[in-house]
Write a structure and sequence with these properties.
Two copies of one chain form a homodimer.
Chain A: H1 8-22, H2 27-43, H3 45-61, H4 66-72, H5 76-91, E1 99-103, E2 110-117, E3 120-125, H6 129-141, E4 145-149, H7 155-171, E5 179-181, H8 188-194, E6 203-207, H9 210-219, E7 232-236, H10 242-254, E8 263-269, H11 273-286, E9 290-293, H12 295-300, E10 305-306, E11 320-326, H13 329-339, E12 344-348, H14 352-361, E13 366-371, E14 388-390, E15 398-400, E16 406-417
Parallel strand pairs in A: 3-4, 3-6, 4-5, 7-8, 7-12, 8-11, 9-10, 9-11, 12-13
Antiparallel strand pairs in A: 1-2, 2-16, 14-15
Helix pairs in contact in A: 2-5, 2-7, 3-7, 5-6, 6-7, 10-11
């Protein structure tokens, strides 16, 4: 198929038809299709790794970043992880058909709010083959049809994985257009998806860096569930246990610096500056972290470079941490209100009143007490797999699993009621 | 204040600050502020009716439609209804702070998904003074700050009602900027709201006719919760009781023809065409309804005019009904899938299998069995007051009450966990 011959609107129409059939399929069949896809991934391991080798060879010629090549690369361990993830998704409790609320108004009607699939979801992502499998599976789990458009560098790998998903659908009698992959690398295809393919796409989810998300938010004419910055804060309260504060801060910053739940700014109460700051700074430095402090921090530890205003609103995604001193819990709340991206914030304290105040007052998708901000992840909060972390406030917020890929309808049963 | 002197961005900033305070206010205080507003509306009845008289006088000079004047007019009965509505909203159960789910993942964290306000809501509506009170009250109930922008013809009435809400807030120590009214009639103010007032507005809700909603959907740079068409269907199955079919159809079409839940197309199974259609048609005609049928309908009752293709996708909002004959429940489902606006559809039948199939297969916000589509209303489905009926699929769907004006956050409690 040449690039120009792809009929994107036809993909939309087929997805819509598949979504209609899927909405009536039972959970067991969808789960079995996922397990069948796992069997195929396992059986086709060599083919998939060969396809990935082609992608890696082509990508290497373009001299990309090592991070990009790392995201693109598959091996036996990573394929095992993909298979494990699909099995987990298949084993997760069913969300479609769940009765969320039952209402019994005075008019005698029986009303249920019941969970149903959203319909057709478009997912636009970078060159990460595992997203092809994960996102396709999670959409199917929630009864949605999906149109996947991965980065061009992962073309052969994604097509190979996509083939396994489609064969899984076919084996269980489900519509094969329920999971479609856009096989053109023409960026115009993305533009067409963002316009909604003649009203067939109900939701777009971008997964990738800021420039991709920004393009999607700018151009999309359909609803978008997206993930912007993760400028996460850890606040060490005056009631914090020293050892816990040190261990959590080290983990929150350094476990993985490139994830959105990594802490970017540390706030510390003045009353524990002399006791808690030095061991924390020592641990961070030994782990290779660069530190930038406000005037009070630098006065205490002159070896720390002074932060500039931009530091307080920067998502480093790197081994860099800005540190500010506050005089009161309220000052920490004010700093967070001003600079946070409303993703994840944590208070470390033994003072339960301070903890409750923080948990209530901070307006972020995830607010934590005495735990690392790196727990900001669908699997870790108990949702099973996640399609991403939403930083908007509407529909779904924070880690989004299968439930976030559903909507609801009102099912009303009467016995002849007319409205007065 | 002259029109040009309104500082819309300042309104946004003030709303944001008020929202932050409101999110920490307790439900009882917000409810008491609403009851205080009711007292003021009752005490100021004469002033409010005087203000309304000014609006009516000015509006009449512009020779508007009688429907527009009707929406604008207040009297003692309507003020009583407004007061009753506010009391009901105050008495409704609290939604903010509700723990939606508790998760206990293996990492030992305790995780609650807790309901929180959305933040700042902008409501843009036509010249209906009651919306000023209702929408302002419902936003406050759910802990949101709101910026209200009503139609210019209702200026004096809305300002008078808005004053009562603000005095209610002040009396109970709540931020008076929690409910702001845009006192300019300059349409540029609407444009500024649609751009989000420097990121301070989290959600826009348009309430009004199609041209208003279309403008909002086209121009808004922030999420929109809106209501488009209500092309609702009633399907008379072969298993329908004749009397029930007649009574429900008459109510679904003629109780009020201008509401979104009014049935616009009647589908009838061929096997009951001869028995059920004539009495239904008779009842509708006696009530003053104009009928348009497909070929089968017109063959049976030649006095019915033939429908054109557009009839099947028209929201008449008038005493007009299109009628089509179908050979099978599946044909009814196919007609609905093609022409419905996914608002409200009903099946009338004594056959429970047919009813279940219909309730599952129809992809509309409200699907009904043996009841009038005119029950499509937040109060009737048991939500208390409603801010409107959402025809989109994301965030909230169908009638939207206080709960639809909230989002959630994850509250995570640990005891020192770092992520492995």
């Amino acid at each position: 198929m040449t690039e120009l011959s792809i009929d994107m609107p036809l993909m939309g129409t087929r997805a819509k038809a598949a979504a209609s059939l899927l909405s009536l399929s039972d959970a067991e069949t969808r789960n079995k299709a996922l397990v069948e896809a796992v069997h195929l991934i396992e059986a086709r391991t060599d083919d998939i790794l060969d396809a990935n080798a082609i992608d890696l060879k082509k990508a290497t010629e373009k001299a990309p970043s090592s991070a990009m090549l790392d995201r693109l690369a598959l091996n036996q361990t990573r394929l095992n992880a993909i298979a494990h993830s699909l099995r987990q998704i298949a084993a997760m409790p069913e969300v479609v058909g769940e009765i969320i609320t039952t209402l019994k108004p005075a008019n005698g009607l029986t009303i249920e709010r019941v969970r149903v699939p959203i319909g057709v979801i478009g997912i636009i992502y970078e060159s990460r083959p595992n997203v092809t499998a994960d996102a396709g599976a999670l959409c199917l789990k929630a009864g949605n049809a999906v149109i996947l458009r991965g980065g061009s560098e992962s073309y052969h790998s994604s097509v190979a994985l996509h083939g396994c998903l489609v064969e899984g659908l076919r084996a269980k009698g489900l519509p094969t257009h329920a999971i479609q992959y856009v096989t053109t690398t023409d960026r115009a295809a993305v533009g067409q998806m963002l316009e909604g393919l003649n009203g067939t796409i109900d939701l777009i989810i971008p997964r990738g860096g800021k420039s991709l998300v920004a393009r999607v938010e700018e151009e999309a004419r359909v609803p978008v569930l997206s993930h912007l910055d993760g400028i996460c804060h850890t606040y060490i309260d005056e009631g914090a246990d020293l050892e816990m504060a040190r261990d959590i801060t080290l983990n929150a910053k350094m476990r993985r610096t490139g994830v959105c739940g990594a802490t970017e700014t540390l706030l510390i109460h003045r009353s524990v500056l002399q006791t808690h700051l030095p061991p924390i700074v020592k641990a961070l430095r030994e782990a290779g972290c660069t530190l930038r402090g406000d005037r009070d921090i630098c006065a205490q530890l002159p070896e720390i470079a002074e932060a500039v205003e931009d530091d307080w609103s920067t998502e480093y995604l790197d081994a860099v941490l800005s540190i500010a001193c506050v005089d009161h819990l309220d000052d920490a709340l004010a700093h967070i209100a001003m600079h946070s991206s409303h993703h994840t914030e944590c208070i470390i304290t033994e003072d339960l009143n301070a903890a409750e105040k923080f948990l209530n007052a901070v307006d972020s998708a995830i607010v934590m007490h005495n735990a690392s901000t790196q727990f900001a992840d669908g699997g870790e909060v108990g949702l099973g797999a996640e399609i991403g972390i939403a930083t908007g406030r509407l529909h779904a917020r924070g880690p989004v699993g299968a439930e976030g890929l559903t909507t609801y309808k009102y099912r009303v049963r009467g016995n002849g009621q007319s409205r007065p």
